[in-house]
Request: fold
Amino acid sequence: MDPKPKATPPTTPDGRYLVVKGRLWRRSNPALGTTQRALLVEALMHARRDVGRALRSGDREAEREARARVHRAKVALGERGPPWWMDGAPDFNRHLVRNTPYAAWFEGSR
Reply:
C-alpha cells in the first residue's frame, strides 16, 4: 500500500508565504533561477543532514557550523533575512496567519 501523499500547503494569494499549521512561512524568492535555486536547496539539505550527524555524535561545534550553513542557505533562498519583495509590505514570516492581514483569506480558503 502506498503512503498517503502529502498535501501541498496553501500559498497566500500574493505568493509570499506558505501556511503550515496556521503559521506563515516565507517562500523562496521566485526571481531565483532554476539552477541557482537547485544549488541552494542542495546546500541546504546537505547542511541539514550535517546538523543531524552532529546532534547524533554530540559534536556541538559541528552542529553550530552546520546550523550556520542552514541559515546562510535559507537567507540566500530568501526564506530568512530581508524580504525579497520590494514594495515595502511588512514581513509576516512565522506569524500566526490569524494575526495577519491574511486571516480572512485563510478562513475563506478552508
Notes: Residues 32-86 form one domain. The mean pLDDT is 95. The two ends are 29 Å apart (CA to CA). The longest helix spans residues 34-57.
